[in-house]
Amino acid sequence: MEFRNLYSFLRVAELGNVTKAANELGYAQSTVTTQIKQLEAEIGYPLFEHVGRRVTLTLHGQQLIPLANQILSVEQQIQQINHTDPAEIHGTLKIGIVESIMNSLLIDNIKKYREQFPKVMIQIYPAVTIPLFEMLHHNEVDLIFAMGNHFNSNGCICACSHNERAVFVSSVEHPLAQREELSLSEVLAQPLILTGDITFLRSELSKEAYSRGLEINPVIQTESSNIILRLVRQDLGISFLPEHLAYSAFMDGKIAVLPVSDYSLAFQVHIFYHKNKFLSPQMIALIQIIQDYWKNHDQSIDPFPD
């Protein structure tokens, strides 16, 4: 149902004349006549009776008047939302996110988002990828940040993606940190500090190890990437992490990135929303902030060894 058809209907009803309504609205008379016919076709009943040059409302036309006013009132409120100062927008933004992304990508950009939307409350739900999509389908979150290469994302729309890779990291004191080249088997023979079996990076590493007849036996397992980084710095083991998570610690000289020559893992980080979800200004702003962050990140020099 077209809003403009409702506007024309209300003007014809008020003025009792199609020509006068058309002149006031800036339409040709034939245009207004067509709009009324379209509206009548949608409703299934005539809205006006034509007696001479004057038109009068039928019973169904009279019943439509208050409903049309309500619909157009809501439409005007929506238009006002679109022009509202972001600083005055209230509400809640619910974000589902893989924990390792939360501790780098999202945390780095929350401040900028809060500067734009100081009155919006942000709720963050860390989870692994499959539960994140379930949360999206049940409308428990507005956006999800997922990492991987292949998703069962039926009913979801990818707002944007970014290419990433995973790296093996150790403390700067670790003996392997002094090597110029390493094999995967050498790294996996060391004490490992890894995330759980169902996380994307752990799952991919396990598949690769299995294909080579290698075993993965972590000495410490935790879902917290912050804990992993702290343990790695203390030289308690080697880990396998997204490069964006290891970047700051590497630049500060607190960890080393190991040059594993016979295995690499490239993947993507995606932002998804449900196809039936209205893209609110709050959601659009966060997506844009993350896109800008990725663009600036790509323009910086990659410090990691190949």
Automatic annotation (TrEMBL):
SUPFAM superfamilies membership: Periplasmic binding protein-like II, Winged helix' DNA-binding domain
GO cellular component terms listed in the entry, alphabetical order: cytosol
Keyword Transcription attached: yes
Keywords: DNA-binding, Transcription, Transcription regulation
Keyword Transcription assigned: yes
Annotated ranges, domain HTH lysR-type: 1-58
GO MF, any single term: DNA-binding transcription factor activity
Domain of life: Bacteria
Family: Belongs to the LysR transcriptional regulatory family.
Protein name: HTH lysR-type domain-containing protein
